[in-house]
């Protein structure tokens, strides 16, 4: 039997200890207890998340209010969708919503795509350092089996980060909310670096109780940023990276940035071709 922390309610991926929650040093945190549910789970641990851990002081400049935070257990499921470009605070918003649900005494678990290897597999980490243990999965359909049926049945709230990488997002949200009565909170990119619909994120809008599009700050002018510009010459849709590869931009700088990058790309391509023909 894995050690548990008294009164914890969140179902968090093992291995987990309080020390695995890392937040910026300027934002101290402490654990507190809530009455625990009658759970007999062999694997997941129970966690209380102190609100100060997910302090609003780390909010993005464009932080918007949460449209709906569930106050009590609902017999019906819910789907809430958080979208926006990179660096908009999607993960921060997801972690805050999860914390709010946990504070309301609901049992929560968080999933992220195994494709996102940026900060190790077992944690969701925001760009400014908030960290929460999670279940890293290839596909969402494996979640119930991974967590265990009993644990799944006890869950009230499921958070999903990097939702653009899950092909079975629609079916999972449908089943979790409609059939199993779960509250599903989904965070992901609505668009890729070419502003095309990314994965299945937009497909779940018709399933949603609420949709929130967050914005970042344009790295070039400071205005609101709606888009993500890729700074490199790579062209595949999926390319894991952070500020080294991507930057948030406003419409004007997306357009001018794309022109610069596409020009650079075609210059590089023609240089490669020329080099090839000299060989
Ligand atoms: N251009 C940037 N480069 C690096 N970090 C940024 C940039 N813009 C904002 N941030 C930080 O990223 C935080 C949001 O991180 P996160 O919640 O992980 O965003 P998202 O999940 O939308 O990518 C902001 O609060 C801010 O501190
Ligand atoms: C625009 C864009 C992004 N990605 C990748 C890059 C990151 O690994 C994630 C997004 O992370 P965040 O939590 O929203 O910051 O997605 C990609 O693969 N392709 C793209 O076009
Ligand atoms: Zn701009």
TrEMBL record:
Q: What are the record keywords, sorted?
A: ATP-binding, DNA synthesis, Kinase, Metal-binding, Nucleotide-binding, Transferase, Zinc
Task: Provide the transmembrane region boundaries.
Answer: none
Give the EC number(s) under which this enzyme is classified: 2.7.1.21
Recorded GO molecular functions are: ATP binding; identical protein binding; metal ion binding; thymidine kinase activity
Q: Which reaction does it catalyse?
A: thymidine + ATP = dTMP + ADP + H(+)
Matching Pfam families, A to Z? TK
Query: Which InterPro entries did the record assign?
Result: P-loop_NTPase, Thymidine_kinase, Thymidine_kinase_CS
The pathway is: Pyrimidine metabolism; Purine metabolism
Annotated region Disordered: where? 50-76
Q: Which GO terms describe its biological process?
A: DNA biosynthetic process; response to stress; thymidine metabolic process
Chain intervals with Low complexity compositional bias: 55-75
Task: State the family it belongs to.
Answer: Belongs to the thymidine kinase family.
Under the heading PANTHER family, the entry gives: THYMIDINE KINASE (PTHR11441), THYMIDINE KINASE, CYTOSOLIC (PTHR11441:SF0)
Q: What is this protein called?
A: Thymidine kinase
Query: What organism does the UniProt record list as the source?
Result: Hibiscus syriacus (Rose of Sharon)
């Amino acid at each position: 039997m894995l050690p548990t922390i008294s009164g914890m309610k969140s179902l968090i991926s093992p291995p987990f200890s309080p020390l695995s929650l890392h937040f910026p040093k300027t934002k101290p945190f402490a654990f507190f207890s809530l009455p625990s549910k009658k759970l007999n789970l062999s694997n997941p641990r129970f966690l209380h998340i102190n609100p100060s851990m997910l302090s609003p002081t780390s909010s993005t400049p464009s932080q918007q209010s949460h449209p709906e935070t569930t106050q009590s257990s609902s017999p019906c499921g819910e789907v809430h969708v958080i979208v926006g470009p990179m660096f908009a605070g999607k993960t921060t918003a997801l972690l805050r919503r999860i914390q709010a649900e946990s504070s309301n005494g609901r049992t929560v678990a968080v999933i992220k795509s195994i494709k996102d290897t940026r900060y190790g597999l077992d944690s969701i980490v925001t760009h400014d350092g908030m960290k929460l243990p999670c279940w890293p999965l290839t596909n969402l359909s494996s979640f119930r089996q991974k967590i265990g049926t009993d644990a799944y049945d006890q869950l009230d709230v499921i958070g999903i980060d990097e939702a653009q990488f899950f092909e079975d997002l629609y079916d999972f949200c449908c089943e979790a909310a409609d059939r199993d009565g779960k509250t599903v909170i989904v965070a992901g990119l609505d668009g890729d670096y070419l502003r095309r619909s990314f994965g299945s994120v937009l497909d779940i809008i018709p399933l949603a109780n609420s949709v929130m599009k967050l914005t970042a700050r344009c790295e070039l002018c400071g205005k609101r940023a709606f888009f993500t510009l890729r700074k490199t010459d790579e062209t595949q849709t999926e390319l894991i990276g952070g500020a080294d590869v991507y930057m948030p931009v406003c419409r004007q700088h997306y357009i001018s940035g794309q022109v610069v990058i596409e020009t650079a790309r075609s210059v590089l391509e023609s240089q490669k071709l020329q080099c090839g023909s000299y060989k």
